[in-house]
Write a structure and sequence with these properties.
The structure holds two protein chains of two kinds.
Chain A (H helix, E strand, L loop, with lengths): L1 H16 L1 H37 L5 E6 L3 H6 L7 H10 L3 E9 L7 E4 L2 E4 L1 E5 L3 H5 L3 E4 L4 H5 L4 E4 L1 H6 L10 E4 L2 E9 L4 E2 L2 E2 L3 E5 H7 L9 E6 L5 H15 L10 E5 H44 L1 H9 L4 H37 L10 H28 L2 H6 L2
Parallel strand pairs in A: 5-12, 7-9
Antiparallel strand pairs in A: 1-13, 1-14, 2-5, 2-13, 3-4, 3-8, 6-9, 7-12, 8-9, 10-11
Helix pairs in contact in A: 1-12, 2-10, 2-12, 2-13, 4-9, 10-12, 10-13, 12-13
Chain B lengths: L7 E14 L2 E14 L3 E5 L6 H8 L7 E6 L2 E2 L5 H11 E4 L11 H10 L5 H14 L15 H13 L5 E5 L7 H16 L3 E5 L3 H4 L4 E6 L2 E7 L7
Parallel strand pairs in B: 3-8, 3-9, 6-7, 7-8
Antiparallel strand pairs in B: 1-2, 1-4, 4-5, 9-10
Helix pairs in contact in B: 3-4, 3-5, 4-5, 5-6
């Protein structure tokens, strides 16, 4: 133990004594670790933010949407979800605490909004009053609409903060009227700010009561809606999902053998495909980094071999003073290890800085996030590289014959 | 080591050291037998190639005899493994070299502390013993100096105090004044004489008769054999 500590101390001294060379030696490792940490911090920042967004949906929410295979789409047979489907789900299945229809505007003109001389384009969504609970979003100013607004199809709406900004409305916009498509709507609530995701604003939308939305889109008879619902008990999620499937198949008159013309997705499934992409990027960058660490390790081995030759006489002296082979082996091995670890440390710092810089420079990019596993893994890898590539020079040093070493000029 | 130290420190019986180069077989040591007692002050002299260095390397446990028996403080060195040889070098031998062989990057203090590292002595104790050892050779005020900041004589003093800091059985000096001018040589020899007077066993390789005159025994080697082994009265203050 004492010997180990002595070796670390002497390794640090030796690294410091050759400061510039040590820096150049570790450069390969520094670059390798820098790139892994930078890439991982950006990618993980992205995934962290996206997952946080989806977390708003809640783990126990389900989304039902219509699904038409591509071939069918070409033939013009579009599957649809209707109000009757939602009613069937709501009335025939237990264990659902909240359920809401979601109706997206389906033609361009309905997305045009205007206030005085300003006009803008936005996402107009018709929703039921349970939307709040299902998505855990709440109004910051004013109120959300009531059942009454929905039933009476009142022209009221709740908006994201960007709508206020884009239309240059006064800050206290609750109570203001503006045009949505061809109708005048009154703002009754302003929703909490959600920020940006991948450069896209999450606050540019108009929420209408479902009834009102249908009224505005009245020209289209056969609307296709999505249904979002919350399951009471997380453990019964699969059961509820299966029952929804059965009810909808029945409603749509599907015979056994016919595929579903809808999809029931959990919040997890929504994030899954995104995470697959993230994981692929992470794995590819890890591979690249593996190669660069390998190259860095070879660089360290090279310099350590030179250093052993250069310090042959010193090794001879130490052996004459009573150093055993193990003492010398340990000293050079730890020196390689220290070089790698310093490289790793510097790499993590620069990589994190670079990640933070990139995410700050790119507008709308989420904040860099370095997970502990990436740091631990990088250090572990550096240590492994140090041991693997340090052992050959260290063994060479340990095997030196003290007489030859002392005679070495 | 046995509890009671025998008075015979070194015992060579019919020691050979053979080098084979191709078909040529060279006996650097050709059947050497000798005994050196505690507190002897021995000079090993001879022409270059006579086997002096080989003998010093074997005595210093840097090398092993090809044949024959070498006992250091009663222990058979021939049967030691690498680690035991290192341990013997650390505890029983103090080396002083012609070219000083100090650790260039380390201060005088660190140089003297180094042998104690391999004994597992804690740092504060190492600092204490090493600074005392440097103080004894008159370098108590140069603890932090690096070798390149010291004169040749001062470097050899550091080397001597490094050799003695672990209280070895033998001080093994290889041409200790070979790289020094005559004034400094006299100073260093005075120091080594003083170390001997304090009870230290000293073996010294030299080719200078002046230096050999300080010793009370002169062993002359020729072609790997002992040509003469003479006891003499030491010349004091030479």
């Amino acid at each position: 133990m004492n010997m180990l500590w002595e070796s670390i101390r002497s390794a640090l001294e030796s690294v410091r004594a050759h400061g510039f060379r040590s820096l150049l030696t570790s450069l390969g490792i520094i670059i390798g670790v820098t790139s892994v940490i930078a890439v991982v911090s950006i990618v993980q920042g992205l995934s962290y933010t996206v997952n946080a967004q989806f977390a708003g949906l809640g783990g126990n929410s389900l989304t039902v949407r219509s699904y038409t295979p591509f071939k069918q789409q070409l033939q013009g047979n579009l599957a649809k979800l209707r109000d009757s489907d939602m009613e069937a789900i709501a009335s025939r299945i237990d264990g659902i605490s909240h359920i809401t229809p979601i109706l997206y505007t389906q033609s361009g003109t309905q997305g045009i909004i205007s206030y005085r001389s300003q006009s803008s384009f936005t996402r107009v969504v018709g929703i039921g009053s349970s939307y709040l609970e299902v998505n855990s979003v709440y109004p910051e100013q004013g109120r959300f609409f009531s059942r009454d607004d929905d039933v009476r199809r009142r022209l009221v709406c709740a908006v994201g903060v960007d709508v206020i900004e884009n239309l240059k409305m006064p800050e206290q916009a609750v109570g203001e009227f503006f045009r949505v498509g061809n109708e005048w709507c009154k703002i009754v609530g302003i929703m909490e700010k959600r920020g940006e995701l991948l450069g896209f604003s999450q606050d540019d939308y108009v929420l209408l009561p479902y009834g009102t939305a249908k009224r505005i889109m009245g020209s289209q008879r056969d609307l296709d809606i999505q249904i979002q619902l919350l399951v009471d008990d997380m453990n019964r999620q699969d059961e509820v999902r299966e029952r929804i499937r059965r009810v909808l198949r029945q409603e749509h008159g599907l015979k056994s053998g016919q595929p579903d013309d809808f999809k029931v997705q959990t919040a997890e499934q929504l994030t899954e495909s995104f995470n697959t992409v993230i994981n692929t990027i992470t794995a590819v960058s890890a591979g690249i980094v593996g190669i660069s660490l390998l190259v860095g390790g070879i660089g360290i081995m090279n310099i350590m071999l030179v250093s052993v030759t250069e310090r042959t006489r010193e090794i001879g002296i130490l052996k004459a003073l009573g150093a055993t082979r193990q003492d010398i082996l340990l000293q050079f091995l730890i020196e390689a290890l220290v070089l790698c670890m310093i490289g790793g440390l510097v790499g993590v710092a620069i990589g994190y800085g670079l990640g933070a810089l990139v995410s700050n420079l790119l507008p709308g990019f989420p904040e860099a996030h370095v997970p502990l596993w990436a740091v631990t893994l990088s250090f572990g890898f550096c240590a492994a590289v140090g041991v693997i590539f340090g052992i050959v020079p260290a063994a060479k040093a340990a095997q030196l014959d003290p007489i030859d070493a002392l005679r070495y000029e | 080591m046995p509890g009671k130290k025998p008075s015979t420190v070194i015992e060579f019986s019919d020691v050979y050291r053979t080098y084979t180069m191709g078909d040529q077989v060279l006996n650097a040591l050709d059947g050497v037998s000798l005994e050196i007692q505690r507190n002897e002050y021995v000079a090993v002299v001879g022409a270059s190639g006579s086997g002096k260095s080989t003998m010093m390397n074997i005595i210093g446990c840097l090398d092993r005899a090809t044949r024959g028996d070498y006992r250091l403080n009663g222990t058979h060195v021939g049967q030691m493994n690498e680690a035991e040889l290192a341990r013997a070098r650390n505890r029983e031998i103090g080396f002083v070299f012609q070219s000083f062989n100090l650790l260039a990057r380390a201060s005088a203090l660190k140089n003297v502390m180094q042998p104690l590292v391999y004994r597992g002595i804690p740092k504060h104790e190492r600092v204490k013993r090493a600074s005392e050892a440097l103080d004894r050779v008159g370098l108590g005020d140069r603890l932090d100096s690096r070798p390149n900041q010291l004169s040749g004589g001062q470097r050899q003093r550091v080397a001597i105090s490094r050799a003695l800091v672990g209280k070895p059985a033998i001080l093994l000096a290889d041409e200790p004044t070979g790289n020094l001018d005559s004034v400094t040589s006299r100073e260093i020899m005075a120091l080594i004489d003083q170390v001997h007077e304090q009870g230290q066993t000293i073996i010294m390789v030299t080719h200078e008769p002046d230096i050999a005159a300080h010793c009370n025994r002169v062993i002359r080697l020729e072609d790997g054999k002992i040509e003469s082994d003479v006891r003499q009265n030491r010349r004091v203050n030479g």
